[in-house]
Description:
About 4% of the residues have low confidence. α3 packs antiparallel against α4 and α5 packs parallel to α8. Helix content is 56%, strand content 12%. It starts with a strand and ends with a helix. By secondary structure, it is an alpha+beta fold. It has ten helices and four strands, in the order βαβααββααααααα.
Amino acid sequence: MLCDADDTNIEDFLNLGKKHEAKIFIIHKGVFKSQEILDELGIDETESSVKVKNQIKNLKKYESRIEFLSLSWISESIIFEYASISDWVDEIDVIKNKIIDANSDEDIGYSRLKEKSLPQAKVKEIGKLVAKHPDFFTNQYNQERLGTILSEVLEQKEIKENTLGYFDRSVIQSEARAYFDKYLIKEKEKEMIEKIAELKSEGLPKVAIRSKLGITEGMLNKYYY
């Protein structure tokens, strides 16, 4: 039985445990670590541009703060769990996108502006297909995997990668995220929550759930409670 922080408070949850004569209360918390985000994005802070470093500073404002907190106890073979996620967690995704954009845009020489690029309509079309790729949701911050997804879409559309201009890749990624956030994210988040809940009900530990779904620890924590 899961009690969300929006539905009840921790004091009522503890009182409920006492009424059920719970003997052991288990507390689990997740602490935010900015380095985990940088590792996920493949960013080396020491070699980053000024724009990226400014966004990393914003990321570090949340350093060591509690991302989520869960409290559970067992009564008559039923697990009762209280979960609370910090309201600033969504801001981390916003900063992630800004870091990716800053990393793509920094240190671009003027000569690059003259390079060829795909028509805007084609860029939007490719971005839409990237967003619809089954692996986009779980890999949208994994630059290596995102590059593979783009390659698959280009092959599907019979577009040679060497026809892409310097800016095209970053613009396509931006178009994909914009389309995904506008049209697909609610459905994908619902599916992820359901998948995690199903595996959780099977008794799988968090490490096994991450492995089975191919998701990061941050994404698992976001949809686990």
